[in-house]
Design brief:
The protein is α+β, with helices and mostly antiparallel strands. It has 15 helices and 20 strands. Strands 2, 9, 10, 11, 12, 13, 14, 15, 16, 17 and 18 form an 11-stranded mixed sheet that branches. α7 packs antiparallel against α9. The two termini are 36 Å apart.
């Protein structure tokens, strides 16, 4: 989502060559089919563009935090690798009542938190009730939960306000990770500094702004896993530095290799480079609260002036495809008939002529410093938008600062990405097209009451065919309003040591390091 999972930066930045989101507890089908028996032990070091912002599941909105949270906590359910369903995690079974307003979940027995405390239904209730606090960024995903009940330590009953289809997927969301009841007797602030989960890894040390050190949770319930003894996430903003570190065996995985180096990495002895199928979509986001981007003709002109094919070749070296709808083809709700405004310079000039700024204007675009791919895109956009009278200044910012600037809505344009955390489209549709979706419509400020109403209606239906029709209408309306420009559908790129095995990001972006191992 997201949210960003939630995801501000961009592909070679936060995600073109990174990965998306969720993934906590192990989905057995995600274990690598690579030859060789998994070996226990080893310390995996992953270099990422930025440090985590929080270790609290309910507070996470950036990918770095989300992916760390998913290694430390479990959810009731998890997405399948192909993104087509949810699978058991802390819940082994779930049943919906005939009136479709009640869901009953049976918990796995014998699960404990990393401190040895048994995990029960009381912990689940506390966690879901907490995550439903409307002041928290992902609470919108739980807005249809009416009550959570605990008839026994092994049973959780969730009652919904309507027949809400996305509930199982919502309970696979990182924000609904299970924490100890009442934070184990700690205050919220105290728990945030010393968090305890039931996931495969637990906190050792967090040097804010630099690195997060996790170690194996020896109390973990998942069948002789994790294999790794330790995982360290290090913050390295510069793509060239990360590449050098990987080649020098200082890190095991580079989460964001530059697209320009991908082919070379694929043929480098001792290294691997993989493009994983994903739901990742790249956007040019526009601040709809700031003139002249308040003008739909300006937004449409910008969309029509962008030659996506040229940018794919120059910045992504052929990886990916031009985007039409804001929804990725990875979703069952994707509408291929929504083509978007593809490159048409005459149409772009016509729209500018209809706008409040027919002679053009000055604007700036946010780019993550150290991100060669984003810089290349911005430079190409400078030339393309100049054709319709827009003089574009590139504003390079450290990744965390860029993220904060976008959240504060203090920008004109920005290169952004989005992907899903769950298998149901409800999360990402809200995240991108709704002001109440946790990201202020991908930090564009876009608001259309009709779209909001349709989003709520779609989530309340059980018939998937009917939901598809509504989501198609939503995609058409958002395309008409053009609050942002869907640019590309992209794979997630990773480079890593050939000693790394069992690393398999899912189509939703989840990667479970519980299944990853290092050969000696």
């Amino acid at each position: 989502m997201i949210p960003n999972k939630w995801l501000p930066a961009l592909v070679a930045s936060t995600v073109i060559s990174s990965l998306l989101l969720v993934g906590c507890s192990p989905d057995q089908s995600s274990t690598s089919a690579e030859a060789g028996t998994p070996q226990a032990g080893g310390h995996l070091v992953m270099a990422r563009e930025a440090d985590v912002a929080t270790l609290m599941p309910t507070d996470a909105t950036d990918n770095e935090s989300i992916w760390a949270v998913e290694e430390m906590y479990d959810t009731l359910l998890v997405p399948s690798v192909d993104g087509g369903s949810v699978k058991p995690s802390l819940a082994t079974d779930w049943v919906q009542s005939e009136d479709k307003l009640t869901w009953t979940f049976t918990l796995k027995t014998g699960v404990t938190f990393s401190d040895g405390t048994p995990l029960t239904s009381a912990d689940v209730k506390f966690s879901l009730d907490t995550a439903s606090n409307p002041d928290l960024p992902s609470a919108f995903m739980n807005e249809q939960i009416a009550a959570v009940e605990t008839p026994s330590p092994e049973t959780v009953v969730v009652r919904t306000k309507t027949a809400w289809s996305p509930l199982p997927s919502a309970l696979a969301l990182y924000a609904n990770s299970i924490v100890p009841n009442n934070y184990g007797g700690l205050s919220r602030d105290e728990f945030a500094k010393a968090p305890v989960g039931s996931g495969p890894f637990k906190l050792k040390n967090w040097t804010k702004g630099q690195q997060l050190e996790l170690v194996k949770n020896t109390a973990y319930w998942g069948a002789e896993r994790p294999y790794l003894d330790a995982v360290t996430f290090v913050a390295v903003a510069d793509a060239n530095t990360r590449a050098t570190q990987l080649q020098g065996d200082q890190i095991s995985i580079n989460e964001t290799p530059a697209a320009s180096s991908f082919a070379a990495l694929s043929s480098t002895p001792g290294l691997k480079a993989s493009a994983f199928e994903s739901s990742l979509t790249s956007f040019l986001t526009l601040n709809n609260n700031r003139a002249p981007f308040t003008d739909v003709h300006v937004r449409r002109a910008i969309a029509s002036a962008i030659d996506r094919e040229s940018i794919l070749k120059a910045a992504y070296f052929g990886q990916g495809s031009p985007a039409g709808s804001f929804l990725s083809p990875a979703y069952w709700a994707y509408d291929a008939n929504v083509k978007g405004r593809q490159f048409n310079l005459e149409e772009a000039k016509k729209e500018m002529g209809l706008s409040s700024k027919p002679q053009g204007f000055d604007a700036s675009i946010l780019v993550s410093s150290g991100n060669a791919t984003q810089l290349t895109i911005a430079q190409i956009l400078q030339g393309e938008l100049a054709e319709i009278g827009i003089t574009l200044t590139i504003n390079q910012m450290e990744p965390a600062a860029q993220r904060a600037t976008r959240k504060s809505m203090d920008y004109d344009m920005s290169i952004s990405v989005a992907t899903t955390d769950i298998t149901d489209p409800d999360e990402l549709v809200r995240f991108i097209a709704s002001k109440s979706g946790g990201s202020n419509a991908l930090y564009t400020g876009y608001e259309n009451p009709e779209v909001e109403e349709l989003i709520t209606k779609a989530a309340g239906l059980s018939d998937q065919a009917e939901r598809v029709k509504i989501y198609s209408t939503i995609q058409e309306k958002v395309n008409e309003d053009q609050p942002m420009v869907p640019m590309f559908y992209l794979p997630t790129l990773y480079s890593y040591s050939d000693r790394v095995h069992g690393f398999q990001p899912s189509i939703t972006g989840n990667y479970n390091l519980v299944n990853t191992w290092l050969s000696k």
